[in-house]
Amino acid sequence: MRLYKGYSGSIEFDDEDMVFHGRVLGLRDIVTFEADSAEDLVKAFHDSVDDYLAFCEERGVEPQKPYSGKLALRTTPEIHALLSKAASYDGKSINQWISDTLAEVARKRVDEGSTKVHTRAH
Questions:
Q1: I need a labelling partner for 33 at 20 to 30 A (CA). Which of 7, 51, 52, 68 fits?
Q2: Which residues make Cβ contacts (< 8 Å) with residue 31, sequence separation at least 6?
Q3: Model pTM score
């Protein structure tokens, strides 16, 4: 699903009940949504995010943000050196090279997987 207010969601299809189920990703809290059609699913996702944000505001708590943009990475010294060389060949910092490379691979993977439909096992 496309991001909505910084949040994304997962989608599953229940072929027994003929309904889509989803969950807002990246939160410790469980925020779900459901609909009978793709169009209604997007609206249900948006409504769930809005309800979650309103609930947090009513309680006076900071809503969880799904991703901070900071990612810790541990690797071997050999891979660290290899990353440094690859980044320098591209005229980039290691951080920028890793970010660009991961984004490229992740976009490809998401594009390939975007046509897959997940169904619930009964």
A1: 68
A2: 23, 24, 48, 49, 51, 52
A3: 0.59
